[in-house]
Amino acid sequence: MRLRAWMASLVGVLVIAGAVAWWLHTYKREERWIDLPRTGEAASNPLFALRVALEKDGRTVHPWRRLDPVAMELSPNDTVLFDGDLRVLSTLTRARLLNWLRSGGHLIVAVPPPDAAADVFESADRTYLRVPLLDAFDVRVHRRPTGCITGVDAPAALCGTRRFAVPRGTSPHLGDADGDVFARIPVGRGRVDVLGSLDFVTTDSLSARANRDFTAELFAADERGGTVHLVHASDLPSLWLTLLRHGWPAWLPFALLLAGWLWARMRRFGPLLPPPALERRSLLEHVAASGAHQWRYGRAGALYDAMLASTLDRLRRRDPQAAALDGEPQLVLLVERLKLPAAQLRDVLRRPDPRDAKALVARIATLVRMRNRL
């Protein structure tokens, strides 16, 4: 019994030993590098890799979130790389930068990138873009971007950027007939490097050899022991610019609806419309229709008699003395009271010929005036 147990244990040990030997024989050790997600400054600052590279070269580097020459305490041997829109710099900041450049500073900037939303707020100049800081160096920035420079080994990030025109005699500069993408402009004892873009110095772009070499040439002339200030402007855009860039799916349909509603409610331009019809007065229409009927069937005398009876009835109520008289005495009183010619009153008291339309109309009109004056 013991022998069988020992044999079973031995077989089990042999099987386990064989499995371990097979696994060790077939196992191959490999090392893999996995890029972890960036955290901290490496995730928020695209100039982090440039900062690390410059520090490895023995340079003193300070990162900044905004360009403030006073807080940065710039010295003549320092270098400032500004990664932001030059149009947002205040007049005081531009003046301090110019004074620092004239004393020997080195400034690296890029022209504003193409942005249809931001360009809406610019002036109506179709050829050049207004950039106050670059205008001080007589650098004119073209509005429309162009393609790559032919025949020159330049970073790919400079393709499709805005070109600019530099003063005559500027050297070195990089460009073609459409304009330059790089120029080093002397300002007093200092200099300004103007580029079409600074995307080639970001963390994601420095892995390319051409970008590293071009970046090294930018800082190669700064071996003077000065400090390098890397400014990545993180200022938020204005509310109107944000709405113009990202809010158009909401405000554009609303603006179209508002324009349609205003168009529907506005006055139309065109020929004058006829005045609206007045309210119909059925009683007057019936009276007019009855008079037309009497005239049509030869009963014009009935119309005269009705108007004369109405006038005499009012005369009896307003002036009984004149109504009681007859003939010339009555006529004299009527002329004095009504201020009408005697001949006209004498004619109105006689019945007209039913076939004489003018005489009928004249007598009825006179009777109406008499009645209104009583």
Structure in words:
- It is a single chain.
- The chain has helices at about 1-25, 40-45, 50-55, 70, 90-100, 115-120, 130-135, 210-220, 240-245, 250-265, 280-295, 300-320, 320-325, 330-340, 340-350, 355-374, and strands at about 60-65, 80-85, 105-110, 130, 140-145, 160-165, 175, 180-185, 190-195, 225-230.
- Helices cover about 45% and strands about 15% of the residues.
- The chain has about 375 residues and is α/β, with parallel strands linked by helices.
- It folds into 2 domains: about 40-235, 3-Layer(aba) Sandwich (Rossmann fold); about 285-374, no CATH class.
How is the topology of this model organized?
Elements: H1 2-26, H2 41-44, H3 48-56, E1 60-64, H4 69-72, E2 79-83, H5 91-102, E3 106-110, H6 116-119, E4 128-129, H7 132-135, E5 140-145, E6 162-165, E7 173-176, E8 179-187, E9 190-195, H8 209-220, E10 227-232, H9 239-246, H10 248-265, H11 282-296, H12 300-318, H13 320-324, H14 328-338, H15 342-348, H16 357-373
Parallel strand pairs: 1-10, 2-3, 2-10, 3-9
Antiparallel strand pairs: 4-5, 5-6, 7-8, 8-9
Summarize the structure.
It contains 16 helices and 10 strands. Helix 12 (300-318) runs parallel beside helix 16 (357-373) and helix 15 packs across helix 16 (357-373). It has helices at residues 2-26, 41-44, 48-56, 69-72, 91-102, 116-119, 132-135, 209-220, 239-246, 248-265, 282-296, 300-318, 320-324, 328-338, 342-348, 357-373, and strands at 60-64, 79-83, 106-110, 128-129, 140-145, 162-165, 173-176, 179-187, 190-195, 227-232.
